[in-house]
Amino acid sequence: MRFAYTILYVEDVARSLAFFHNAFGFSAGFVDEGGDYGELDTGGTRLAFSSRALMRQLGKVPGIADPNAPVFEIAIETTDVAAALERACTAGAVMVQEPREESWGQTTAYVRTPDGYLVELCSPVAMPS
């Protein structure tokens, strides 16, 4: 088995794909003809978006992300957290936490997407020698 993708439920798939492209540089992969589902090419694992309307048609009751009480986060690794934060905010993200050095040797910052999802921008973890 392998971890293939994560799907976020959103109101507007095209808007979410455009935001993640502009904010983080990910390119769109598969997008269905009706616009209710799309994937981003992020490397080994894809990040996908499905419209809440499609989920309701499939008999599901999708919730809405609550940035004040998140139940998960997406982590995007970069060598320049400050530049990634600036790019994300320019694209419409809301800063939740400025860059800071963590005790485990990593720099982290957090933003909220227009759909309310929490995204961690982080440097690679510095491994002890």
TrEMBL record:
TM region positions: none
InterPro entries per the UniProt record, alphabetical: Glyas_Bleomycin-R_OHBP_Dase, Glyas_Fos-R_dOase_dom, VOC_core
CDD domains to which the protein is assigned, alphabetical: VOC_like (cd07264)
A Pfam family that the UniProt record links to this protein: Glyoxalase
Domain (VOC): residue spans on this chain: 2-124
PANTHER family: BLR2520 PROTEIN
The protein, known as: Glyoxalase
Organism in which the protein naturally occurs: Marichromatium gracile (Chromatium gracile)
